[in-house]
Amino acid sequence: MNEPIINRVSKSSLETIDIEIYRLKGNRCFFDIKNVLENGLVLRENIFREYVKMHDWSKYSNQFVAIGCSSNAILPSWSKLLVAASLKPYAKKVIIGSLEQLETVLFEKVLNEIDFSKYLNKPVIIKGCSDLTIPESAYGLLINKLQGVAKKISYGEACSSVPLWKSEK
Question: Helix, strand or coil for residue 101?
């Protein structure tokens, strides 16, 4: 007696969210102020201002840019602001911080625009094993958006998920 195999996952109300699809497309880059400093440590104001004035900022067109310094230099706060002001007309997004912080800011923007009501009272699995680098903070933002909407939140795949949260309703 051969009974047909039934895919219970496809017939359930289970919703899978692949956070990777919410990652904004575009190049990301880190503008390292260290490269403009004398010996990678000392900011000479006149030299720095001349660099900022003469640098071709258009090469950052349509990119997401994080501004920071990879050395232990002590920088005046205006130095990063000056770079940010120069990048603003060209880049899609400019932040002062790391590439991971940039990615967090981008995910926050996208996740804030999503209508999560479609997950109301449904079990949700946040897909694991992304091909792209997704910061943990993005998963945290997603959990915050789903709690109070979803019935249950798990992480992984339908065949082997890890329960994270369950509504008390």
Answer: helix
